[in-house]
Amino acid sequence: MAAVFLVTLYEYSPLFYIAVVFTCFIVTTGLVLGWFGWDVPVILRNSEETQFSTRVFKKQMRQVKNPFGLEITNPSSASITTGITLTTDCLEDSLLTCYWGCSVQKLYEALQKHVYCFRISTPQALEDALYSEYLYQEQYLYPFV
């Protein structure tokens, strides 16, 4: 009976009707399997299902252009003898590494290596890319305590 039905559909417009029957079969199979608890694709699931396979933790959202900020607290009082005070603003815990006295040209070359050769993902990798040509290095863990 099903074969006669498909042959009749094929006589009228083969591609359209066969595609319609095939689509109905796939959707019906997915719904039946989902009803009996089998894992089916998300598009065939009921939109009212509230169970999720992974838990997502809520975070407070902030709109920022740059997720990391570094600001000189009082620029008018900053000098070579008294130093500077920096204020940081970062969305996540991070490690701030300051390199003092490095060449701007060497820093530019290191950043070019980061883009075109290899990713610099650790302070040691940046030191290697700078060829350790800096005067002083400091590290701070954010948030500062």
From TrEMBL:
Keywords of the record: Membrane, Transmembrane, Transmembrane helix
The UniProt record lists the keyword Membrane: yes
Transmembrane spans: 15-38
Protein name: Cell growth regulator with ring finger domain 1
Organism of origin: Homo sapiens (Human)
Gene: CGRRF1
